[in-house]
Amino acid sequence: MSLEKAELKILILNDLGCDIEDMSESLQRECHQQEGATVALREATKAILGLQALVDEDVDKGRYDIEAAARVKAYVARAASQCEDMSKAAFTKRMVSEGRHQGVAQVVGLLKKKAQVESLKAEAMKSTDEDRRPIGGHPGPSIAQSRKAAEGATKKKTTKKRAPRKKRTRTSGTDA
């Protein structure tokens, strides 16, 4: 692999890492929102259930009759139940978001490790390239070219000069 390819890999891994890290932050923000919603809905449930005690006080003071108080308590219990259900749904969403966030965080870690490995490879290639040739220069002859050059050099030393070939003469096309 060439140095340019290694540097390109590093750039691609870095760009992917940045995009996925942004996604991770978004998921973390969603986790915090769902956690806040869960806490708020639990507090709302407690507050709504506290209203039932106020209904009992109003019945004692004579503001409501028992039938009306029973209806009010049923509606208050229904509202508390709805808040509790929404709280459970928010908790579930938070758990899902937390799982996604952890998965994306692992991907970010993996990309960072890959980028470090590639940068180490690129540094190693740079150090070996500095010993051999300038960066971006011609890499030199290939193995096949080196072999042909070596064979050509040995043939030139061992071969004798041949006598030039005699020219053939053409005969006319009419044979008698």
Summing up helix and strand content along with how strands pair, one would put the structural category as mainly alpha
Percent of residues in beta strands = under 5%
Radius of gyration: 42 Å
Spans of at least 5 consecutive residues whose pLDDT stays below 50 are: none
- Morphology call: rod-shaped
Mean pLDDT level: 83
Fraction of helical residues: over 70%
Helical segment tally? 3
Largest sheet: none
The termini sit apart by 72 Å
Q: How many strand segments?
A: 0
Number of individual domains: 1
Helix and strand pattern:
HHH
Q: What's the structural blueprint in terms of helices and strands?
A:
Elements: H1 3-61, H2 66-132, H3 143-158
Characteristic key phrases:
176 residues; mainly alpha; 81% helix
Descriptive report:
The chain is mainly alpha-helical and 176 residues long. The protein has one domain (3-155). It has helices spanning 3-61, 66-132, 143-158. Helix 1 packs antiparallel against helix 2. The longest helix is centred in the middle third of the chain and has 67 residues, at 66-132. The two termini are 72 Å apart.
